[in-house]
Amino acid sequence: MADTKLLIMGNMTKPGVPEQIEELRPWFEQHGEIVAICPANEPPPEAACQADLAVVFGGDGTLLSAARMLAESRVPMLGVNMGKLGFLAEFGIEHMQKHFGDVVTGKIKPTERIMLDVSVSARDDSPVSFSSTAANDVAITAGEPFRMVGLRVKQEGNEVAHYLGDGLIIATPSGSTGYNMSAGGPIIEPSLEAFTITPIAPHSLSLRPIVVSSDRSVTVEAGKVNPGTSVIVDGQAVCGLAKGGVVKVRRAKWGSLIIPHPGRGFFHTLSAKLHWGRGPHQD
Q: Stretch 228-251: mean pLDDT, rounded?
C-alpha cells in the first residue's frame, strides 16, 4: 500500500478544499506516494498517468471535470464530497479513510461509466471547431432571445426526429440523474450502455425522451436557432451553435473509472440523495 501512487485533485477555488487537502497530506503520505496535487479542471501533469488512484475533493461537478481530464489515462477516481449533493462523489472524509485500504488493494473495484465524444462543426463536411468528452451530458440550449429552436436528430444516417422546443439533452447513464432527469428524462442504471435523448420543453406532445444504444453515433443538425444557441458539455464547457451547424455525439473510446461506496447500491443512493421511490410525507 505504501507503494501506491496517488494523484490528489480538487476544486481549488472552493472554500475549504485546499485546506482539507493540505491537512490530509501527511495521512496520504503514510499510505502512498503523492505524484501530484492539482486542480481538477486543468490538464494534469505528465506524472498523473503514473498514478494508481486519483482522490478528488469537491462535489459532483469537480468529479466530472476530473473524469474528462483522466479518461484516457485510465486512473480510477475516488470522489470525496465537499459539495451539496454528492451523488457521484460519494465518500466523506471518514469513509474515505476507513475504506482506503480496501480501495488500493483492489477489494473495492472501480466501476466503469461510459462517456461521450462530442464534436461541433459549421457543416457536416466542415472541420471540427469544438470537441470535448462528456461524463454526464451534452445539452443544446436555445439561448437568447429564447425563441424555439429546431434540431434534426439522426442515428448513423437514420432520422430519429425533428425536435422543436427549447433544446435537447443527450446523456450518459451517469448523467441521467442530472439535467436529463430535471427535463423529464428517464433514469438509467449506470452499468447500462445506452444514451438518453431528451427534448427540453418540446412543442409537441408526441416528442418524448427515448433511450438508444451507445453503439451507434447520434448527429444533431441545427435548423432554426437563436444567436445565443449553445452546446454545453457537463454544464461546464460551452460553444456556440449557428444555423446549419452539426453536433456529433458518439461513445468515447474510454470510460471514467469511479470507486463506488461499498454498501451503497444505485437505488439506495437514489433514495438517500433524491428521495426517489418514497411516498408522501406524513406527520
A: 96
Q: Catalytic site residue 125?
A: no
Say yes or no: domain 116-251 is CATH 2.60.200.30. Answer: yes
Residue with cell 436529463: 180
Spell out where the chain has E strands: 5-10, 33-39, 53-58, 77-81, 111-113, 116-121, 128-134, 137-141, 149-155, 158-165, 167-171, 194-200, 210-213, 218-222, 230-233, 237-240, 246-251, 256-258
- CA 186 – CA 180 distance, rounded (Å): 7
The per-residue pLDDT for range 69-103, each reduced to its tens digit, is: 998 899 999 999 987 767 788 899 999 999 999 99
pLDDT at 280 over 80: no
**Per-domain residue ranges for the chain?**
5-113+255-274, 116-251
State which CATH number among 3.40.50.10330, 1.10.3720.10, 3.10.105.10, 3.40.1350.10 fits the domain covering 5-113+255-274.
3.40.50.10330
Q: Do the domains 5-113+255-274 and 116-251 sit in the same CATH topology, yes or no? A: no
Residue among 3, 60, 137, 283 flagged as catalytic = 60
Least Cα distance to 140 among 131, 130, 126, 150 occurs for 150
Regarding predicted confidence, which is higher, 274 or 37?
A: 37
Is there a contact between 54 and 45 (Cβ–Cβ < 8 Å)?
no
Average pLDDT for 3-13 = 95
Q: Please give the C-alpha separations between residue 187 and each of 87, 152, 173, in angstroms, as whole numbers.
A: 13, 24, 7
Is residue 283 over pLDDT 80? no
- Whether the predicted pLDDT of 118 surpasses 60: yes
